[in-house]
Structure formats: structure tokens, C-alpha cells
């Protein structure tokens, strides 16, 4: 624990509610270095908020050594003595105080920070958050996005050891969310403070995180860089939760036809490159092949299998093509506008080097 570059360490965190009936956090381990932005990602009820509240001191973990900040055990330390800043989805502002006073409120309470220092910090934060013109306004005169900036400003001026953000952008409209997440990342880069950011939005997680911890049922499934999480999911849950549109899944069996190993599904019967077969065959005869829609190639002949186009959707620079094959829906993402239209028969080729291979329990095989 002497490693000072670790800002926040969550150590075998367990938290149960209702006398053990609900296990909200089940042996959660996380390391967030100073200057690092970790995203806690997962579906509703997976334990993200409880983890964050335990770090903040708003919930008491079951174990006594669960929360460490800058090498100190904070598990039983009062929230106000942890020097952490918490930003929620909804900002509670004092309606009768100006933006400036709302931002400085936490500091006004601290005797050791003098007036000039408070003003300096508020002005710095206002500049970072583009709030300079709004400092004399009252909360009712702000938009939702501006309100969230004030909440961030309030956190920044306390110069915390770590920022804890619980779905801070969830109440904003889509365009503003995208703008604000970039700003939060830039601010965090500038301040070089540890930040833990909770969201259930996988796109937000991929864009903002230095690392992502994907949670399910109180358990961290994978903690890794966005690139690894996207391209090397450890299990089917992570593979399907990340990525939009989601991966295609094919139930396959692995069979030796005497000369090559073949992957056989209701859609296709294809020879596996030796490099992949050698790694798969000792492990499992049943394989779930996962393929991101961008790694499925469309053509008019010589593919691995065929289907009929049900729908095309233009998604800006790319087009999502929904294809029906053997009664199942397959998703392909193509660059630019689609060359195919509804009702067309198309051939599909799998990029086997880019595919994921899971066993029947959904654990990654290679
Ligand atoms: P969401 O995205 O919906 O906020 P979450 O991932 O943040 O979900 P938590 O709020 O941490 O999930 O909840 C984890 C589990 O613990 C859920 O099953 C929830 O019902 C339960 N839980 C949370 N707080 C309490 C509480 N005070 N009493 C009982 N159960 C609780």
C-alpha cells in the first residue's frame, strides 16, 4: 500500500444489504492511479453506485480494509475527512446563492482557506468550465448542462484526491452529453487527479475511460483499457454489453473432417485456420463464435453463408444492415452508404481473426 501513485484502491470490497440477502459488491478490486480515469460500467443494479458510495464513505463496507486513498486505509474514516469530491446525476444547488457562492460553498466552510484563495480557485474552475460569464447568476437561470458544470466546479475547487462521478451526464440531452464528456476528460487530464466515473452507457465508457471495469451482479468481470475490453472481452457478457450494435453470436461445434478442423453452425460450415484450430481444439467441442458487426463482410458471391437484407439504417458515416439468415437476425456494419437494399440476397464472410471464441458457459477460449 506504500505505492503513492495509486490514488484509490478498492480492496476485496464486500457490501451486503438486508442482512446479507443482497450482495451488492462481491470481492471488488480496483486500482485507480493518480491522473487516471476509471469508468465503472454495467447494467442497472450491478453494484456500481454502491461501490462508489463505499469509496465516498456514504456506505460502510462489510470488510475493514476495503477503501484506500493515497496509501491510507479510509474504510472507517468519515466522508468529510476523505478529501474526495462526489458529483451526482442531479445537482442540488442552493437556489438563493449565486453560481459563485454555490461553487465556493464547500470552501467557505473550511476555515483554513482564505478569501483570496477561494476566489482564485473559483475563478480557475470557472475558466476551465466556461462559467466565467455566469458567476453572478442564480441556479434558476441556468440550463441543465450549466448546472452540471457548477456541480463540477464545486468539486474542482476542493482540490480533492479523487473525483467520484455517478452518472453525472445522465440528465443531459444526447448532444450535450457528448460535449460534456470530452470536457470532463480534458479537465481530468489537466488536473491529473484520480477519477472514478459511473455509467451504464458503454459508448460513454469507451470514449472517456483510461480503464473500464465492467460489473455484473456485484462482481467485476473485466478491468482493462477500452481497447482490450472491446477487442478482447474475457466473457460473453462483456462481449455483448460493449459495442453498439451488439455482436453477432453463432452456436458452433468444432469438428475434425480428417484434413482440417471445421466450425459448423446452422449458418455455415467453414475451415478454421490452423492457428485458431490448434488453440481451440484441446479446450472445447462447442464454441460460441462472437463477431462484431463491422467484421462481417457483405458481398454478392462466395461468402461463408447467405441471407436476405431486412433493413438498412444509415448511421452517419456507416450503415447498419440487418440480415435474416436461417430465421436469425444478423447485423453487419458497412462503411458509407449501403450498396444493398431490402430484399437483396447477400453473401456474408466472417473475419475469423477478429472473431471471439467462447465456450458454452460464455468464457473466452482464446
Ligand atoms: P443503477 O445503474 O440502477 O444505479 P447500480 O449498478 O448502481 O444500478 P446499485 O445501486 O449499486 O447498482 O445496487 C446494487 C444492488 O444492491 C441492487 O440489487 C440494489 O437493489 C441493491 N441495493 C442498493 N442499495 C440498497 C439498499 N440501501 N438496501 C437494499 N438493497 C440495496
Automatic annotation (TrEMBL):
UniProt xrefs under Gene3D superfamilies: 2.40.50.100, Nucleic acid-binding proteins (2.40.50.140), P-loop containing nucleotide triphosphate hydrolases (3.40.50.300)
Molecular-function GO term, any one: ABC-type transporter activity
Keyword annotations from UniProtKB, A to Z: ATP-binding, Cell membrane, Membrane, Nucleotide-binding, Translocase, Transport
A Pfam family matched in the record: ABC_tran
Domain ABC transporter, chain residue ranges per copy: 8-242
Coiled coil: none
SUPFAM superfamilies membership: MOP-like, P-loop containing nucleoside triphosphate hydrolases
GO CC list: ATP-binding cassette (ABC) transporter complex, substrate-binding subunit-containing
InterPro entries, A to Z: AAA+_ATPase (IPR003593), ABC_transporter-like_ATP-bd (IPR003439), ABC_transpr_MalK/UgpC-like (IPR047641), Mo/tungstate-bd_C_term_dom (IPR008995), NA-bd_OB-fold (IPR012340), P-loop_NTPase (IPR027417), Transp-assoc_OB_typ2 (IPR013611)
Entries under PANTHER family matching the protein: MALTODEXTRIN IMPORT ATP-BINDING PROTEIN MSMX, TREHALOSE IMPORT ATP-BINDING PROTEIN SUGC
Protein name stated in the entry: ABC transporter domain-containing protein
Organism: Entotheonella factor
